[in-house]
Amino acid sequence: MNTPSQPGKVIFLNGPSSSGKTSLAKALQAKLPEPYLHIGIDRLIDMMPEHLNNWTGDLNNTDGFSFTQEKDSSGHLISQLQIGPYADKICDLLRTLAITMLGRGFNLIIDEVCLRENSFKDWQKILAPYSTFYIGVQASLGILESRETQRGDRILGSARSQNLTVHQDKSYDLMIDTSDASIAQCAELVLKNLSLFQMKTP
After folding, report:
1. CA triplet 73, 169, 131: central angle to 5 degrees?
2. Mean per-residue pLDDT for 121-145?
3. pLDDT tens figures, 30-59
4. Is residue 2 part of a domain?
5. What is the residue range of 15's domain?
6. How many CB atoms lie within 10 A of CB 7?
């Protein structure tokens, strides 16, 4: 199969768990004039053997993803993500897959939670050759924790932990707050700003 001459474009979403990134990605896929593939670490985690990961919050030395839990000074539960050696390879694999897809001309919506030191900078480095629109996705802590509880598939305390660090020392082309605006409204805001961004991008 011939590789398309035009490399793919990127919409990069970074934000804490339960901030609405996946819902926003799906809304954008439905509205964008060109097809965009939605990729993220959750897709790769679903491919992993279940026993490699520990989502219970117990401290263990798993090779995959796990959480440690503690209480903050106010008594709130904080669940911090731990990345074992195999999980670290999975994170690297996501970047490799993204570059492979972009090189073949596929547009991507990358759904990330950049918690590791330098992970956001690593993405910026490898995506530098591609037209990349960076979006920070956030919501109020109360909303994040409410969604976390309602979903039932997220460990309690992870949103509070991620909310403290995921946007630190990062700059974006656009910041989205899903606390009050609907996903449809957020998608329209992204499309408007993305159009202006692409007009200015050679």
Report:
1. 140
2. 94
3. 999 999 999 999 899 999 998 898 877 665
4. no
5. 10-200
6. 18
Task: State pTM to two decimals.
Answer: 0.90
CATH code at 196?
A: 3.40.50.300
Residue 185 lies in a domain: yes
In-domain check, residue 127: yes
Which tokens sit at 59? 């401290």
Query: Is the pLDDT score of 76 beyond 90?
Result: no
Angle between helices 141-151 and 158-165 (to 10 degrees): 140
- Among 61-70, 81-90, 108-117, the minimum mean pLDDT is found in 61-70
Task: Evaluate whether residue 4 is within a structural domain.
Answer: no
Give the number of residues written for the chain: 202
E-strand stretches of 45-182: 65-71, 77-83, 107-112, 132-138, 174-177
Distance CA 69, CA 58 (A): 7
How far apart, in Å, are the Cα atoms of 19 and each of 48, 73, 153, 172, 202? 24, 24, 14, 16, 31
Q: With 50 as the cut, is the pLDDT of residue 3 above it? A: no
How many domains are contained in the chain? 1
